[in-house]
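notes to self, project folder thing:

trying the whole complex as one job this time. last attempt i did each chain seperately and stitching them together was a nightmare. four parts in total, labels are on each line so i dont mix them up again. if this works i'll redo the older ones the same way
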Amino acid sequence: MKIGFIGLGAMGAGMAGNLLRAGHSVAVYNRTQGKADVLLKNGATLAQTPSDACRGREFVITMLANDEAVQEVVLAKGAILDALQAGAIHISCSTISTAMARCLEVEHHRRGQRYVSAPVFGRPEAAQGKELVVVAAGQPESVAACMPVFAGLGRQTIIAGTDPAQANAVKLCGNFMIAVLIESFGEAYAALRKSGVDPKLFLEIINGLFKSPVYETYGRLIAEERFQPAGFRLELGLKDVRLLLQTAEENSSPMPLASVVRDQFLAAIAHGQKDMDWSSLARVAARNAGLGA
Amino acid sequence: MKIGFIGLGAMGAGMAGNLLRAGHSVAVYNRTQGKADVLLKNGATLAQTPSDACRGREFVITMLANDEAVQEVVLAKGAILDALQAGAIHISCSTISTAMARCLEVEHHRRGQRYVSAPVFGRPEAAQGKELVVVAAGQPESVAACMPVFAGLGRQTIIAGTDPAQANAVKLCGNFMIAVLIESFGEAYAALRKSGVDPKLFLEIINGLFKSPVYETYGRLIAEERFQPAGFRLELGLKDVRLLLQTAEENSSPMPLASVVRDQFLAAIAHGQKDMDWSSLARVAARNAGLGA
Amino acid sequence: MKIGFIGLGAMGAGMAGNLLRAGHSVAVYNRTQGKADVLLKNGATLAQTPSDACRGREFVITMLANDEAVQEVVLAKGAILDALQAGAIHISCSTISTAMARCLEVEHHRRGQRYVSAPVFGRPEAAQGKELVVVAAGQPESVAACMPVFAGLGRQTIIAGTDPAQANAVKLCGNFMIAVLIESFGEAYAALRKSGVDPKLFLEIINGLFKSPVYETYGRLIAEERFQPAGFRLELGLKDVRLLLQTAEENSSPMPLASVVRDQFLAAIAHGQKDMDWSSLARVAARNAGLGA
Amino acid sequence: MKIGFIGLGAMGAGMAGNLLRAGHSVAVYNRTQGKADVLLKNGATLAQTPSDACRGREFVITMLANDEAVQEVVLAKGAILDALQAGAIHISCSTISTAMARCLEVEHHRRGQRYVSAPVFGRPEAAQGKELVVVAAGQPESVAACMPVFAGLGRQTIIAGTDPAQANAVKLCGNFMIAVLIESFGEAYAALRKSGVDPKLFLEIINGLFKSPVYETYGRLIAEERFQPAGFRLELGLKDVRLLLQTAEENSSPMPLASVVRDQFLAAIAHGQKDMDWSSLARVAARNAGLGA
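result (full assembly):
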């Protein structure tokens, strides 16, 4: 299929590569052009602008950092909204707000275009290895039309609903579950260290109990205080909690754990941790317990 | 070895049975005598009082509901403290406060007796199936002497430290990790239900992400609102969070997630949920979001 | 002086009236025209549009509900930004976000216009009685130029700084202090009611202790559950806490009390209280304690 | 009347002095005897032990630091419980737990003695100046019998109910209201300092708004960071919040603001502030915002 792909960060580059390998025709665009080089060698076409990446394409995929980037690349004058052909589908894989998803749905619809939210679960390695889980939502025929594309991106696609924002809500809640577990490790480790118990010993027990690779990964990162280089920057973790709290507010749904986690993220940023891995959130609990750092 | 076993609840009965099967001589005591019948058939001796269960025993194990029961069975006049022979070891497997563990340590020591904290992780089925994880702490020689006993109780023993209270702190933190995940499911499900997303769909994604039997179990219980019969009563969940917060206070270690969970437990109890499974904590988040129940 | 006044709600109408009484020439605009009638009788001129209210005016004051209204009345095409003459001053008395204040500062500056933030403390009665406290911030010469206007609006003007957003931050923090006291009454009353103590008895003590009209007013409203008609709608209370949390996030400043209050506001709204007085926030604490409502 | 008075701390000494001035016969006891000297000069009798202070007395007042001190002075062997004559009244003015108040009620009743809880509001200066507010609860005839005593202690007596624990619940809630306002100042000041606004400017506005001496006092202490010498030690503030949370737990009454304040107290203590004034709680919010200290 003919796909435009916009946003070649750590995630996007891997995803676009897999689409090429799956035999799709892919026109790629990135603000910083160097990132496209490997993809061009593997058969991608270079688009000079976002709208260039839309021309003659049945799908355009955006994999961008945040709402502001989507604003610029999709909604601004002369951007995707003005360039995409009627009937073509914009697939947003970015972790954006549910409000932005609703806005995109409305604006594309007005122009006879289609919109599907399809945020993905997985770290850069998973993007590269086609191991992502795609959570898609939108009009059923639109989502159905995207299935061959999703098949090229990940190992599983889950349909969250017919309203695109539902996929974004699911993605934000997934990240929330991880953020909470990071904070819970932070609090437990701090309390145990002050009782003279080694966090690694506790982690051994937790691994035996939860048997989860997610606990194992984060539990170890935090116990060893390996917060750099960042797998997922703390600042982005805060962004996702903020977006979730916005969604929850639109829904009148209180989320007190999310509120605690948000406050801890802010304390982390106030202490210079914005570019560390988000697991460094645990430092806030340690610091409040009077433990170094 | 010659073991006294006090407290034949759902957990204790399974544990005492496994000690018998492992070839130990076991004298059992329970306030309600009927609970001992099966064990007596399998070779246990019946003790008429807690002190009776201590006579001529190298070990006495207590598996009781809370600090108050320990107070009565161990510290009261004519109870274990007065009856245990010098050098014998009291093993407390109950989930008790770290303050009580320290008190037991001191009182036993005064009388030339020994004390080891050895709380266990696992539900009644695990107790029965010898699948418990034992977390032990105390004087190294005392803990070493207990190893054959622990081998008869579970599949693994982890040494938390030389101060008995450390084992209790670890146990309380383990339960805290579970309580937090229950609450996080509660909040996420509520927010998603208000976005029109089915909790079961979210659970499918979470299972794919966390791959943890603990998430699978609690995620399903909550999605299906199967809160009765209780595997672990909500009231006991509150007790454990309270004990943890006490420990954290002794250590000057703030635990904001634990505080949130405690408040939600109180709201649950105010709405008549104390005898439901502790996963029903999730109802509080739902109720605060205006969702039924 | 020649003043344009936009926004004749409960607050704005009183404020515009006082400017007239102080001898200023006032052109008034409101979306719903009926609201202007009394003012017209007292000498105001009717403006047909926001830009109409700017023509030939040295000052234009906006007293609007929220950022969205400011967006529409100030920033939209053909609105204040396009109509205000060079050197004239836009005074925003609305409770808006610090981000919006910064945006207004920049946009006015670009056009050679001037901008001052001047949110006010006080309820509608205070607006009418010229009892408001004005908190102003902006370029010193601009603020100085506004002093005669402020003198017509309230009993006291306090200069918060040279950055307009500072005045808005102060206003949001002031409302936060009140929201927190409302919630603290809610929690204390609920706990005391469950101890069999009458909230009014507690209020008597609190009045003796704090000697504050604010405590007296809110303490009584809550004790008597007189939540309608609303003096200040709960929904607006949530808005202000949200704006404060945004400001605090821009500053990396955690505010855990504000987070709790925000969650309680959401629960209130989920239970249909958005149009009640914001003191009805106390119902959430009562409900979570299992007390009626 | 014949009164025994036990506990001559900063509060107790002033209270006992006023009882003497009011013409009562007062036998005083304190662990450290030097504290009694001035009172002895003013006509007090010296008691060598707590039980000594009960002999021949119609009332015995305790003004002690906490539950543990009450345990020792009242409940221990040979203490007040064993010494007080039948019909005499034990008045506890200490800030103790509601559980302890209930325990005292039961134990005195068993011995034909009477018990009244009468905690007081006010700082040491108020104790000295007979400006305390007494909150009393207990059997109506007992409370009535105490009125002449209360008249000698403070400027006002408020009857909280017939269950002594009710007076203690009221006292704890009163302190909670103050602790919350301290924390709210801490959060607002931190956010404003990061916006470049001087806390003193904010305080001026708050004073104009709340017109409360309590806000004025604490707002200034915090703005000026005058945390030593302590008027009320932070450690005691934590104690009172802990007791309140226990009461709230007995009542199944969630108090999320109290939980936040408790966590902040723990962070303060972890940073060495236990002997500073409790207004230094504000430092925790500042520190979490990355502001010095």
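what i see at first glance: The longest helix of chain A spans residues 164-194.
need to look closer tmrw
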